[in-house]
Target: Putative alcohol dehydrogenase protein
Amino acid sequence: MKAVVLHRHGGVDALRYQDFPEPLCSKDEVLVNVHACSVNRLDVWVRKGLAGREVRFPHILGCDISGYLTSDVDHPNLKMKKGSKVVVYPMIHCGSCRFCRIGKESRCISSNASIIGGFSSWHGGYAEYLKVPVRNIIPLESYLSMEEAASINIAYLTAYSMIKYAMRLMRDINGYDDVTIATTTAAVDYLANTNTVNDNLSLLVYGAGSGIGVASVQFAKVMGYKVIATVGSQDKLEKAYALGCDLVIDRSKQDIVREVMKFTMGEGVDLVIDHVGIWDTSIKCLKKGSGIMAVCGATASEHTNVEVRPFYNKLALIFGAYLGSKKELVEMLRFMQEHNIRPVIDSVFALKDAALAHTKMEMNNHFGKIVIKVASI
Ligand SMILES: NC(=O)c1ccc[n+]([C@@H]2O[C@H](COP(=O)([O-])OP(=O)(O)OC[C@H]3O[C@@H](n4cnc5c(N)ncnc54)[C@H](OP(=O)(O)O)[C@@H]3O)[C@@H](O)[C@H]2O)c1
Ligand SMILES: [Zn+2]
Model:
C-alpha cells in the first residue's frame, strides 16, 4: 500500500511517501480502507519529537480518520458489512480499567493507552489501510462527507467534551441544581435552550481558525454563548466573524485581557478554552466567582507562570481535558446534525503532499481543518 512514513523525527522532509506492507489483523482487529485523515497539531509534535515521548520507527502518523471496512465484521461487539462507512475512535484503550468500564475511555489508565498515529505503537491514517481494534470502530451514519468525518474525531470531540463538562460544572457553581437533568445530552440541550441561563454566558477561545478554535466557536454559538476569539493576523478576522464570533481580537496588535474586559464590561468570561498554554492571560480573563478554564494544549508554551492569589481570589476552576469518550463522539455527531453544524475545512491535500499540509499548519495560516485525502477518488 501507499503510505507516508516517518523513519526519524525531523522537519517536513522526514515525511516519506512510499510503499509499505499492508497491516495484518488479529481476530479482535479490523482493517479500514482509509478515505481521509485530517492533520492535527499532534501530528506535528510527533513528527518533530517531544522530550520524554517515544515512538517506534518506522511510524505512520494520523489520528483523525474516516474510511470503509474492508470485510464483513462479525464480532461479539460489532456486526457490520464490508464497505460500511466508519470513523475511528482515536484512543487506544484497555476496555477493562475502572474508567473504560464506565465508558470514559479517554481517561484509560493502562500503560498502553495512546492515540492512534500519535506517540503510540499503533500506526495512523496517513496510509491506504489501517488496522485498529474492533472497539475503536464507530459506524458513520451521518450527513457529513468523508472529508468532514475525518475532521471531527480529535479537535471537535475535545471541544465538545470540554464545553459539555464545563457546563456541568457551571450548573453546580451557579446553583442550577434544582433542575432535574437526566442525561448530559439533556444538560447541554437544557442549557442551550434556556435563555435565562445562557444569555449571559461568555466564552473565550484562542485561535479562531485552529481545530479547537473553529469547533469551540461553532458549539458555543449554538449553545447561546457570547463568543470571543483571538486570531494571529488581520486576514483571519473576517472569517472569524463569519463563523459567528461576537468579538474577534487580533493578538498581533491588541491586548487580549484589555479587549476581553472591555467587551464584558469588566466582568470577564465564564469559560476560557486554553489550548495554547497562556494561563496567566486566561486567568486574568475569567469572571470572578464562577470562571472556568479548560486546558487541552500547550502550542505556545510547555510551561506557564501564574499568579496564585488572583487565581483563588476569583475562585477560578481549571481542568485538564483529553479527547472525549466514544459515547460522546456518537452523541456529538447527533448534536452536530441536530444543530446543522459542519466542520470547517481549510484545505484538502493528496496523501503524497502530506509535507505541504504540515507546512501549512506550521505557518499558522489555516482557518479550519487541513485534510489529507488518502483515497484517489
Ligand atoms: N488534549 C487534547 O485532547 C487535545 C485535542 C486536540 C488538540 N489538542 C492540542 O490543542 C492545540 C491546538 O490543536 P489544533 O489541532 O487545534 O491546532 P492548530 O489548528 O494548529 O491551531 C493552533 C493555533 O493556535 C494559535 N496560537 C498559536 N500560538 C498562540 C498564542 N501564543 N496565543 C494565542 N493563539 C496562539 C494560532 O492561531 P493564530 O495564529 O491565528 O492566533 C494557531 O493557528 C495543540 O497544542 C494540540 O496538541 C489537544
Ligand atoms: Zn482502560
